[in-house]
Amino acid sequence: MNILQINSSARSTGSESTRLADEIVARLAAGTDVTIVRRDLAAQPHPVLDEAALQALFTPADQRTAAQAARVALDDALIAQAQAADVIVIGAPMYNFGITVQLKSWFDAIARAGVTFRYTAAGPEGLLKGKKVIVAVTRGGLHKGGPTDTQLPHLRTFLSFVGLDDVQFVFSEGHGMGPDAVARARAEAQQQIAALA
Fold this sequence. Notes:
Helix content: 25-40%
Number of domains: 1
Number of strands: 7
Order of helices and strands: EHEHHEHEEEHEH
Strand order of the largest sheet: 2-1-3-6-7
Radius of gyration: 17 Å
CATH superfamily: Flavodoxin domain
Structural class: alpha/beta
CATH architecture: 3-Layer(aba) Sandwich
CATH class: Alpha Beta
Largest sheet: 5 strands, parallel
Strand content: 15-25%
Shape: globular
Low-confidence stretches: none
């Protein structure tokens, strides 16, 4: 089994979402022959999708400059990791009611028409099929199931768009609400991890 772990916190150390993602990967890897690839998007930031990147992506491969080819190759590497994974574990903290810029850059990199999704007469079809995704969602407040949880619909919509429909979420909320809330959140997350298939 190949596990791809995506850590999308802005912090490489001390991140609750990364700690939780580490625990999920350890649970999945226990007693199993696995290969684990970890990508820390804070330590290895991926460039944002800007005008130069768009020009590179929309230039035919045989007409790209060396700089354009190098930029596209950065996205190609992330796509290849996602394609090779059987399980993708994403550490996804909530920042200002949404996903981090680090995770958005990863999403932008792996969303490639004709490679990870395609448009058909019946509508878009995701091509990253047959994979399990587990998302470790951490928040400072309590948002699950409420109107302020704009993060979860974004995650579900994007993952489904590229064919990742088998998604489970592990929640750990209330980390900004004091030590007792943090202890509760971690205990509840442990129960969710123990219940993972």
